[in-house]
Amino acid sequence: MRILIVEDDKKTASFIRKALQSEGWAVDACGNGDDGLAAALATPFDALVLDIMLPGRDGLGVLAQLRARGNRTPVLLLSARGEVNERIQGLDAGADDYLPKPFIIAELVARVRALVRRGGDTKATVLRIADLSLDTITRELQRGGTRIELTTREYRLLEFLLRSAGRICGRMTIIEKVWDYDFDPGTNLVDVYIKRLREKIDDNFEPKLLHTVRGIGYVLKEAA
Fold first, then answer.
1. Cα atoms in the Cβ-side hemisphere of radius 13 Å centred on 162
2. What's this model's pTM, rounded to 2 decimal places?
3. Can you identify the CATH homologous superfamily of domain 2-120?
4. Which long-range contacts (CB under 8 A, 24 or more apart) does 178-181 make?
5. pLDDT of the chain, 224 residues: tens digit per residue
């Protein structure tokens, strides 16, 4: 599971991040509304923890833009004020839950866990492109009716590319989302795994699905 935190207070964001990571989830964090909106639109997340009071675009503005663009990721709103009118406004804008500050971290984790479960009811469990299909429950991959075995890391890479199908994924983005590194290890790690994945899903099939965009990254799509 991947969670996005949009919180401008670094200490609070770090506190939440460590708690969610202890649950085994991958966690990204942004410190302002504009970066949070861009991240939520660029990457599929299982839930968002979104503060209302943010620099630039506030949390309600971020939420409104997400819902206007058809993004249905479950959102837990945070606010230091906790006013009833603000809570109603957030829920009306499309928030799934609301937690006033200060909060008990165990309650926040429990609420995020509930959102992830709820969101999983409507989230696609079988990802497809052309004749390639990946069942995210059984982790079974097939192309053209042929079953293909993947290692754990190959699976994570392919799932990320499928959920980002049609969008160019930069090397650093892949490192962050698939390996959970927030730095470039300075190796050809991504290239090695892309090569392995391409051998499995493309070498004996047509059309080719995994394409290199020179100098930028990789994209999974039907046409080159």
1. 22
2. 0.58
3. Response regulator (3.40.50.2300)
4. 178/153, 179/153, 180/26
5. 789 999 999 999 999 999 999 888 889 999 999 999 999 988 888 899 999 999 989 999 999 999 888 888 899 999 876 566 777 788 888 888 999 888 999 999 999 988 887 765 555 578 889 999 998 878 899 999 999 999 988 998 998 899 888 888 898 888 888 887 766 666 788 999 999 999 999 999 999 999 999 988 999 998 75
CATH architecture of 126-220: Orthogonal Bundle (1.10)
Contacts of 11 (CB under 8 A, 6+ apart): none
Q: What residues does CATH 3.40.50.2300 cover in the chain?
A: 2-120
